[in-house]
Amino acid sequence: TPTLAFIGSIPSGYSFTSPTGGSSGGGGSTPTVNYALQFDGSQNYVTVPYNAALNPSTGTVEAWIKMDSSNAGSDREIAATRGNTFSGGWELQTNSSGNVGFGFTGTNGWQDSAYSSGINAYDGQWHHIAAVIDGVSTYVYFDGQQVGSESGSGSLLDVDNPLTIGRRSDGYGAWSGTIDEVRISNTARYTSNFSPATSFTSDGNTVALWHLNDGSGTSAADSSGNGHTGTLEGSPTPTWVTR
What we know:
Distance between the termini: 15 Å
Strand content: 35-45%
């Protein structure tokens, strides 16, 4: 793989896009690399301390994921605040058939909501997954297309659990694959089919946003400005990889 290096700075008015998707403009900035986290399907994950804002009563949970066929037959957790009870919280996951869905405890009880059918997330390609709760119904999107819905699901209930990326806090559903760009919002961002952004931006409705571009170390910065820093856990911890 060729290695590119700049002598000096990028001239003003010019830009550079790296083979890994990072870009920078002129005026002396350094080209950035787009990282993601790879999980081993056994013991490594990311944990974020409990905060009620991470369980919005209405909102959107979304991420980019990449998995392969070796995961067939297993449920896998993308991100979750639910533990091993149905007292509150949510989980964004894939099931044993490679379908995607969102489960949560709401005002109408536990909702194993809006699972898709006929979707194969276990194909080794990058996919965008989003779940939207509007206080009445739940919708799940796969690569910007609505693939599941459940009416009358109610609002999500808070629970005093940490948020985890790559498994549930009780250890269930350890992720085997790669995760990038995890965002939680306190609004229903998607009401119809859409083209997913490859990199999310933070706005007034963003509760937390982990670009997972740190590239090294054991912290995952929250780009929302709300301080929901993640910590890489396990031995070994998840691996930083380029996307």
